[in-house]
Amino acid sequence: MATAAVQHRLARRMKVDALRVTYFLGVCFVIAGGLVAAVTGPLDLARGSWLAAYSVLVGGVAQCALAVGHTVTGAPAPTSQMSWIRLAGWNLGNLLVIVGALLRVPILVDIGAVPLVVALVLTLRSTRHARRRILAVGYRLVLLVLIASIPIGVTLSHARAVAAPAELAHAAIESW
Description:
Elements: H1 2-14, H2 18-43, H3 48-73, H4 80-103, H5 106-125, H6 133-175
Helix pairs in contact: 2-3, 2-4, 3-4, 3-6, 4-5, 5-6
C-alpha cells in the first residue's frame, strides 16, 4: 500500500504542467529572438529584424502572457487538456507563420493564423469568470489587439509575396 502512495506522489511530481511548458517555451522564444537580433547585422539577414521581433513579441512575450493570464486576472485555471491544446496551437501556428514569412509562402501564414486565433479565442473565453475585473479588462484588450493583428500580418505577408518577384526583376535589371 505504501508503494502505491509513493508511486502516486512521484507520478504527480513528474506530471508535466502545460502552463509551465507554455511559459518556458515563451522564454525560449525571447532568448532565440535576442540571439537572432544579435546576428542579423553581422550575417546580413534580410528578414532577421522581423524574425527577432516576431520571436520576442509573439512567440515569447505573448506566449508567457497566455501562460500566466489566469493567475493575473484571477480567472479559474484552464483544464489541462485546454492548456495543451492552446500550447500546441500557439506553437504550431507560430512555426507556420515564421516559415511562411521567411519563405514568402503566404498560404503557410494563412494556415498558421488559424491555430493562433483559436488559442487567443480560447484564452479570451477563459477570462469570463475572472475575479480581478480591471486586470481582466486590460488582459482582454491585449488579447483583442493580438487577434486584430493577425489579419494585418496575413495581409502584409501576401503583399510581400506579391512584391518579391518585382524586387527580383528590378535587381536583375540593375545588375545588367
